[in-house]
Amino acid sequence: MRPHPAADNIIPLYQQHAALWDAARRDDFIEQPWLDAFLSLLPGGGQVLDIGCGAAKPLAAWMIARRFDVTGVDASPPMIELCRARFPQQRWQVADMRTLALGRTFHGLLAWDSVFHLTREAQRQMFPIFRAHARPGAALLFTSGPADGEAIGTFAGQPLYHASLDPVEYRQLLAQNGFRVVRQQSEDPTCGHHTIWLAQRQG
């Protein structure tokens, strides 16, 4: 079945409305307990790849304040411009996560509220990309939907695409790419009902 047409409008939507998204997002930090759990698996001062980093607040800002070295990638140039203005000492790059190939590995990979904007087939292709950028022992934190399917929200008055695989398939994809699940919770009521995965690369 062909994905909903809104799947093709994610990047243009975040390019056009970066300032609006930033204003609505940066002071809301319900993710801190999960982010702290993720960081606890990393060495002090470790290198983190933030995939779909947005405008760097609040998640990247929290990591930078704790002396982690952040490389952020996002497909929206206005978002990356905001990142560079706020944290010029870190690395920020305009990139589509679906074709990401940085040629280096990291102690941690963060994909919060980003991968779930991809179609299900594109999500399947992300797991080898995660593996290619993960050092042995690297932590991976990402969000998904609770069940297989598509969901269409709204942002700036336009349809906003989300998709999810079945949780069983996420577990299979993680295992196939060398990750073990450390912790998983569907629709966490303490975190805005996000479905969250914390995993770690074996070996």
TrEMBL record:
InterPro entries: Methyltransf_25, SAM-dependent_MTases_sf
Keywords, in A-Z order: Methyltransferase, S-adenosyl-L-methionine, Transferase
Record carries keyword Transferase: yes
Classification via CDD domains: AdoMet_MTases
Highest taxon in the source lineage: Bacteria
Methyltransferase domain segment(s): 48-137
GO molecular function: methyltransferase activity
GO biological process, one term: methylation
Name the UniProt record assigns to this protein: SAM-dependent methyltransferase
Organism: Chimaeribacter californicus
Record lineage: Bacteria, Pseudomonadati, Pseudomonadota, Gammaproteobacteria, Enterobacterales
